[in-house]
Structures are given as C-alpha cells and as structure tokens.
Design brief:
The protein is α/β, with parallel strands linked by helices. The chain has 5 domains: 10-96, ACP-like (Non-ribosomal Peptide Synthetase Peptidyl Carrier Protein, Chain A), CATH 1.10.1200.10; 120-358, Rossmann fold; 446-560, Roll (Luciferase, domain 3), CATH 2.30.38.10; 565-675, GMP Synthetase, Chain A, domain 3 (2-Layer Sandwich), CATH 3.30.300; 708-927, Glycerol-3-phosphate (1)-acyltransferase (3-Layer(aba) Sandwich), CATH 3.40.1130. It is built from 31 helices and 37 strands. The strands form 10 sheets. A 7-stranded mixed β-sheet has the order 4-3-12-11-13-14-15, with helices on both faces. Helix 6 packs across helix 7 and helix 29 packs across helix 31. The two termini are 34 Å apart. The relative contact order is 0.07.
C-alpha cells in the first residue's frame, strides 16, 4: 500500500515566505560570488528562467528548506515548483521528519536459497521462471515518491504485466511496434515495461516531465525520439490524463495516451507470442535532448549476455541486496539495477531520483536500513554526498554492509572517490568498495569492470606528453605536470576492446586513441538512423565515441571524441546550442563555443557557453546573457553554468573554420580564453597542424618499421630454414636458428633481456610459459639455455613447410582438446631426457591478461614426477599483437624461474592444482599483465536482519 504522509505543522508556515526568499538570495550569492548584481527573488519569479537555478541548485534549495523547517517535502511537489510561491505551497503539504524501518520481507527474502534462470533466452523467460519458481519472493521495494512502502513480489508482477499486455493488444499493438513509456520510478513502470514485451511490442523508456505545467518545453526536447521510434502509443501516469489532448498535439505521432490502470481494467491474458532471443528487448535512446536521437537496438540476447558477464565478475547472488535511485529510463538504472536484480533474484530497493537529489542522505540510510551489499551512482552523486550531507543527518549511519559501490555513467574523478572514502570511512564504508566501471548503451550496459573489492586504481601520467602526442608516460605527482586518470578495469567476459587511431588502425598500449569494442552484447545498429549506424560500425568493431588508453591491460578514459557534455548524468550536445545562440541578435554568427568544463568539488561537468559579441554597454550585455540563458534552458531544460561574452576572435577555430572546442575548454580552464587572442589562436592552430602531421608521421613510422622488420625476417629465414633442414641433430639446429634470431632482434632495435632466477635442473623438465604473441616462440628459442620440444597445436603440423620445420626443431603436435596427449608427451620425457615446453593457456588474445590454464601439462608433470620450470615473457604482445601483422619496436624480457618440484606422495589432483597455482603466481608476478582467471571472491557473509555491526570509531 502507498503510505500517506501528514501535513506539516501549520505554525511554521506564516513566516515561511520570507524564509524561502532569504534562502534563495543566499544561494544566489553562493552561486555567483563575483557578480555585481543578482536577480531579486520574488514570490512570482521563475526559478529557472529569471533566477537561473538549474536542477542541482534547486535540489540544494529544497534540501535547505527541509533542514530549516524539519520537514520532508514530497518529491513531486518540490520538483514541480516553478516559483517561490510554489515552494511555499509544497512546504504547506510537507510531512514532519519521521524514522523509517527496514523491510522484514526484504531480509527474509535474502535468506531464501533460490537458483538463477541460467537457461532463460529472453527477459520474459526470466520473469516466467521466477514467478513460477517462487511467486512470493520479494522483488522490489519502493521508497519515496507516490509508491513509498510498496513491496512487489514476482508473483504479483507477472499477472499485473499480463493484464496490461492484454490491454495493449486490445488497443491494436502490432508485433515489434515501439511503445513509449513516460513513467516515474513506480510499480507502473515495471509492469508497463514487461507488459509491452509480453504483448509483442518494444518498450521505449522516456524520462518523465517533473512539472506537468512545462509540457510544451518537455515535448520540444522529446519530439525527436518519438518521431524516430514511430510510437503510436504512450503509457503515462494518471497525472498526465488532464493533459491528454495537449500531449497528442505536441507529441506528433502519438495517437493514444494510456495509463496502466486503464489498460489493465478488463484483465485477461494476452494472445501468446513467440519471442526469440534476437528480438528487440527495448530501444535505449542515448543522445541528449539537443541532438538527433540515437535509439540503440538492444536485443534480449545482448541484455542477458551482459547481465551474466557482469554477474560472473561481481559474484552476484540472490542473497545480495541492491539499493538504487538511478532513473529507470537510463541504462544503468534500468539494466544494471532493475533487470540485473530481476535476473539474479536479488531484492531491489528503488528510490525516485528526486528523492536522492533532494536529500542525498536518504540513499545512504536506505543502504544502512536494508543492509545493502550493492549500489551504483554517477560520479556527481558521490561528490554530492560529500558536500551536501551534514554529520547531524547521518548520526549512527553504518555502511559496513556495502560490498560494491559502482561508479560510472559519466567521467570518474579520482579526487571525488578519495573524498567520499575519507568522509564516510568512520561510518563503516570501505574504500575498496568503490568500483569504477565503464559501459554504454551500445553494449547493453557494461564493458569493463575492475576486479571486485580492489578499489580504485589511479594512474598519474605526464600531461604535456599526452596532450602533445597522445603518449602515456606515468610520472610522480607534481603540481601542474601530471594528470590523474581512474582505471575502469578489464573487458567483461565475452567482450573485447581496442584503442584505434583516426584511420582505424590499432594502437599499442599506453597510446591514446578511440575506444572501440565488440562482443556478445554489442548492438547491431541504431534504430532507423543509418547515418549514425555507419559512424558506429568500424568493421567488426563498434566505436564508443570515447577516447582512452590501455595500461597494464586496463582501460583508462581521457575524454569524448565528439565533445559530448555529461552534466549531472544528462547528455548534452553542443552543436544545437551553438546554432541557437548564434541566431541571437548581438552574437556573432558562427562564433559560439559550448563545452563542458571540470567543476572542482562538484563531481560533474559545468555547461559553459562562450559567445563572441561587439556589444559593450553593460545593461545590453546583461540582457544578452539573459537571452542566451533562456535559449540554453529551452534546449536543455536548464540554464548554463557560465555564459561568457567574449571579444571578437576569442573563440578558437582551425584554419578550415572548424570549432576547436577542446582548445576552448583548455584555454577557459586556464583563464586564457579571450586574452592574447591572436597569439593564442596561432598557438592552437600550430598545435592542430602539427598534431595532424604528427599522427601521419607516426603512422608512416609504423608502416616503415613493419616493412623493414618483415624484410629482415624474410632474409634471415632462408639460411635458418636451410640449417634446420640440413643439420643432423636438434642441438645444432637450435644453435643455427638462434644466431639469425638474435640478429633480427638486434637489427630491428628490439632489446632482449634474459633474467635467470635459478638455472633449470637437468632434463627432463616441463617448461611452461605465458602466451601473448606469435613472437613468443622466437624469443624462447633465443633465451632458453637448451633445446626443448615445443608442444604445439595439431593444426600447425598441417601447414606446408612450417609443420615440417617445426618438427625438425623438435616440436610435438597435440590435440589441444584431448588432455591425454599431454600425459603421453610427458610420459616420453620420463622415459628419456627430453624437455618439453607448454603454453598452458592454449592460445592468446589481443587484449593483455593471463588466460585460464589447461591443466594437462601440470597433471602430467605431477604424475611423471617431473619439475615444472616457469618462464615469464614480457613485451611480446606489444611487438606483435594478436590479429595484427604490423610489428612494433618494444623491449622484450624473459624471466626463467626456479623449478617447482612435484611432491610424489601428494594426492594427484591436489598436486596438479598446486603446480598450476605456483606457476601462475610466478607468471603473473613477472609478466606485468592482469589475471583473467582471477577467482571471484564470494559475497561477504550476510548479517541477520536484526544484526548491525558496530561502525568504526567516530560514527
């Protein structure tokens, strides 16, 4: 049932009008400390248009009013307020602060032992499985908003969705037809979303308007999405029924505005439909309101593949509990929070975004009350908690149950994560819980995750080298000389990424470029947008639109290639704002730059509009700034953080007239935009020209070196092959091959270093090495102290000439998928004096990382009583990456470790695992790459619902 809140004490209200105006005046002074004059707060003044308060500023104002009057303002009333008078009315209906208790049903749910629907092929299969297996299990608890206190079980969700699906089919919904959903965080959203699927349609989540009175402005920003998806039906809440005709007028193709209650009125069961794994599950629109809409076509198969990959890395179980205030129209809230909990059966606590923005401590208290283990938020949310949560509001708070707090959806700042960890450490929060992640709707959601429980990894790199050439050079932190970037982790299982230059050529590690990806979750296209789809697809790869680099196998993001601005979780595109501002009288057409600037202490980006003008008179400039703010607010829904009127020539452009937004941003952040204009423009132009020439020169160097290296290799291969063919024994053949290989490395400038920690014992031995490149075998021939028999895959034996030459070098060919062959090989070693070398990974990939081991070699060594000698190779992947045939110059290192002696009396299986673990530990320590078979830590023991561990001292 929906809880009803009591009215605020009436005795507070007579003096509230002056208090509201005083709080607004104080907030304006804080927002604009350098302003000579500020707008005068009046009871009828528009909060956005006249007072310039964006959404974050309004959240701050509402929080201050709640604190001043000790009340809880209803989120919808607070966000719908357009004037101070509206705020006063919201205060009159506010409820006094009251304590909230944990959900007994939620805690009982977590103690139940349930399974996960691993055989499900669609989201509908997942719903059916849970509803039939455990209908009484709690699925979602709602806190805040109109559904405060409502608890929804799987058994209640499915019949409700079926009834609405029947209503949609009665309305003439066609198979695979998009249906727009304009619903807040409420049970109706979950029911409607699943109902559209059950009825055969495709849900299209839209963000709901906060103020019904602003529908005209809202639909101006949503019309593009509705036109693109072609939705005829719109499901909204009852509050929109009064505006039914207005919505149909403004929304273009929308023919019917429907509510969940209206659709479910007649009950019934929908006509059953066959839903395939490759069918569209939803359309996820990624563009901001100011750009041509891009609807990502997300299939059932891609959603489930992504959820399973994320769950495998994180170790999600039905005993976890997730608290989320993320909006359900955004992929992180929709797929990561809700559909993730739907799949894994973990209970979810859902709060409206407004509830968090109004009082961020509500998020923290929800984690405390429900002993949540998982949560997620953008960077700005963590920053908001640092600055907006008073100690008095969180006395007794305990965040010790939190296992992982994902941070994504916008740029992640190391300073924010550090501040949050330090601030809430005394409330039981563990720094290692913060987990920076990277994902995008084009991959359903997640793409890279770090090892869970490790905490953030921050890399300091040389600023000047990155800006000049894109090269990544780690450096010690020095004021002004270094940039800090946060690792987003490793690609999820089943996903790959690469860094490419402007010509789609893969770049080596530690070089900035375009982040591209592919895998089981990658989308096929944008809906009805072939031009955007062409930009997305790069052969088998998809372009993320982001810039970044890979270091030690992990992804670091450095920016966005198309100047997208992410502000408080919203995507804003600068082009439409620039065009509209450029149309204003007094602004120089084509001389407007819009960009996002880092906002220290805010945890998000600031929206900056720079417009050139020749207007000099102070009042006229003030009026022009107000008009720019109005245009910006019309397009984005919020005013800009800074409108800078600049003299002619301040906005930086290339020689061909293209805007240099990144250069404008850099100059703005240095305080140089508009000063020394001519000199600065020349510097930027020179950098641009040199940068373009530098990129071409770097590519030419790569091609030149590759051609030279292959030529040298070809020349040296001829005498080496003849020697292998003619010499009578393996020892002399190895010596004959080593010499040309050493010449090859020396003449190509590839430095080879051999480190011997301990000399191998006499034969027979089982050598094992990590496998990263086709260069591995060449390096091993150079550095091993004696000939070994390479254990190679059977396919190589069938390659003409190569197979014969490898056999002459002593190679043994085995079926990689038959473990008995490894045992037979080492049985030969035990009977003679031959050494064998295995690559226990069996294969290699493009991306860095030590793959899972095949255990055949270790089982055979344990059975034969033969020592295992690990050899760690470093740098070969950088010389020649998998699927690439352009070698690059890099330093190579081979480290030969001490032999791992088998224990003959030990259990065979346990000894096999011990040998494999010891060899793996050595290779990981020496090769500098991440562990791609890292055992996921089990979820922390869940406490009894009534058990609360004592927080750290100071809480």
């Amino acid at each position: 049932m929906v809880k009803k809140t009591a009215s605020a004490p009436r005795e507070l209200l007579p003096a509230a009008d002056q208090a509201v105006l005083a709080e607004i005046a104080a907030l304006l002074r804080e927002l604009h400390p350098q302003a000579r004059s500020l707008p005068e707060p009046r009871m009828d003044a528009r909060l956005v248009r006249e007072l310039g308060l964006d959404s974050l500023a309004r959240m701050e104002l509402l929080a201050r009013l709640e604190q001043r009057f000790r009340v809880r303002i209803a989120e919808q009333a607070g966000f719908a307020a357009e004037t101070p008078a509206d705020l006063l009315q919201a205060l009159a209906g506010a409820a006094p602060l009251e304590s909230e208790n944990a959900s007994a049903a939620l805690q009982a749910t977590r103690r139940e032992q349930v399974e996960v629907p691993t055989a499900a092929r669609t989201i509908v299969d997942v719903l059916d499985w849970h509803a039939e297996s455990h209908p009484d299990r709690l699925h979602v608890r709602f806190e805040g908003g109109d559904a405060d206190g409502v608890e929804l079980t799987f058994g209640a969700l499915r019949p409700a969705a079926l009834a609405v699906a029947a209503g949609l089919q009665a309305q003439g919904l066609r198979p695979r037809e998009p249906v727009a959903l304009m619903l807040p965080t409420h049970p109706d959203f979950l029911v409607a979303f699943l109902a559209v699927m059950l009825a055969g349609g495709v849900p299209v989540p839209l963000y709901p308007p906060l103020r019904p009175g602003g529908l005209a402005e809202y639909w101006r920003r949503q019309a593009g999405i509705v036109r693109n998806c072609g939705a005829r039906l719109l499901i909204a809440n009852e509050a929109m029924e009064a505006h039914r005709q207005l919505v149909r007028t403004l929304a273009g193709g929308i023919q019917r505005l429907l509510t969940v209650a209206e659709l479910a009125r007649n009950g019934g069961v929908p006509e059953p439909l066959v839903i395939a794994a490759d069918d569209l599950a939803l359309l996820q629109y990624t563009s901001g309101s100011t750009a041509d809409p891009k609807g990502v076509m997300v299939s059932h198969a891609s959603v489930l593949a992504n959820l399973r990959a994320m769950g495998a890395v994180v170790g999600v179980t039905p005993a976890d509990a997730f608290v989320s205030w993320l909006p359900l129209y955004h992929d992180m809230g929709l797929i990561g929070a809700w559909l993730g909990c739907l799949y894994f059966g973990a209970p979810l606590v859902l709060m409206p975004p407004q509830s968090f923005l109004l009082r961020p401590d509500r998020w923290l208290w929800a984690i405390h009350r429900h002993r949540a283990t998982l949560t997620a938020a953008p960077n700005f949310a963590f920053e908001l908690c640092v600055h907006r949560v008073d100690d008095s509001a969180i006395e007794g708070l305990d965040l010790g149950s939190l296992r992982l707090a994902f941070c994504g959806a916008e740029p992640v700042f190391a300073e924010t994560l550090e501040r949050f960890s330090q601030r809430f450490a005394r409330y039981g929060f563990r720094p290692e819980a913060i987990t920076p992640v990277y994902g995008l709707a084009e991959n359903a959601l997640g793409l890279t995750f770090p090892p869970p429980g490790r905490g953030p990894r921050v890399l300091q790199i040389d600023r000047d080298r990155l800006l000049a050439s894109g090269a990544v050079a780690p450096c010690p932190p020095v004021d002004g000389a270094c940039l800090s970037f946060v690792s987003c982790g490793l690609p999820l299982p089943g996903n790959e990424l690469r860094i490419a230059d402007d010509g789609d050529h893969e770049l080596p590690d530690d070089q900035q470029g375009h982040v591209q990806f592919r895998g089981a979750s990658a989308c096929s296209a944008y809906y009805r947008n072939p031009e955007a789809t062409r930009s997305l697809k790069h052969g088998a790869w998809r372009d993320s639109g982001d810039l970044g680099f890979v270091h030690d196998g992990e992804l670091y993001l450095t920016g966005r290639s198309k100047d997208l601005i992410i502000r408080a979780g919203h995507n804003l595109h600068p082009q439409a704002i620039e065009q509209a501002v450029g149309e204003l009288s007094g602004v120089r057409r084509g001389r407007v730059a819009v960009f996002g600037a880092q906002a220290p202490g805010a945890g998000t980006e600031r929206l900056v509009v720079v417009a050139e003008t020749r207007v000099d008179e102070p009042q006229a400039r003030t009026d022009l700034q107000a008009r720019i703010q109005e245009v910006t607010a019309n397009l984005t829904g919020e005013p800009a953080d800074d409108v800078m009127l600049a003299a002619p020539g301040a906005v930086l452009k290339t020689s061909s007239g293209k805007l240099r937004r990144a250069a404008c941003r850099a100059a703005y952040e240095r305080g140089e935009l508009g000063t020394r204009r001519r000199r600065l423009a020349l510097v930027v132009l020179a950098r641009a020209l040199l940068g373009g020439l530098g990129a071409r020169a770097r590519r030419l160097r790569v091609l030149t070196f590759a051609g030279y290296a292959w030529s040298v290799f070809a020349l040296l291969s001829i005498p080496a092959a003849l020697a292998v063919a003619l010499l009578p024994d393996i020892d002399r053949r190895w010596r004959a091959v080593r010499s040309p290989l050493r010449v090859l490395f020396r003449t190509t400038g590839i430095e080879v270093t051999t480190r011997i920690q301990a000399h191998p014992p006499p034969p027979p031995c089982c050598f094992v090495a990590n496998h990263a490149s086709y260069v591995d075998g060449l390096l091993l021939v150079c550095v091993l102290p004696r000939p070994v028999a390479f254990v190679a895959k059977q396919e190589l034996a069938r390659v003409p000439l190569l197979g014969w030459l490898l056999a002459r070098m002593g190679a043994v060919f085995v079926d990689r998928f038959d473990p008995r062959r490894a045992t037979e090989v080492l049985a030969q070693a035990r009977a003679g004096d031959r050494d064998f070398l295995f690559f226990p990974e069996g294969t290699f990939r493009r991306m860095p990382g030590l793959l899972p081991f095949h255990l055949g070699a270790f089982a055979a060594a344990a059975g034969a009583g033969i020592p295992v000698v690990p050899v760690a190779l470093r740098g070969t992947r950088a010389v020649l990456r998998g699927s690439e045939w352009l070698p690059r110059r890099a330093a190579l290192t081979a480290t030969i470790g001490a032999a791992i002696e088998p224990e003959r009396s030990a259990d065979h299986w346990e000894e096999t695992l011990r040998l494999a673990a010891a060899a793996r530990a050595f290779l990981l320590a020496e090769n500098g790459e991440p562990d791609l078979d890292q055992a996921m830590p089990p979820p922390e023991p869940h406490l009894d619902p009534g058990q609360h561990p004592r927080p750290a001292s100071g809480a």
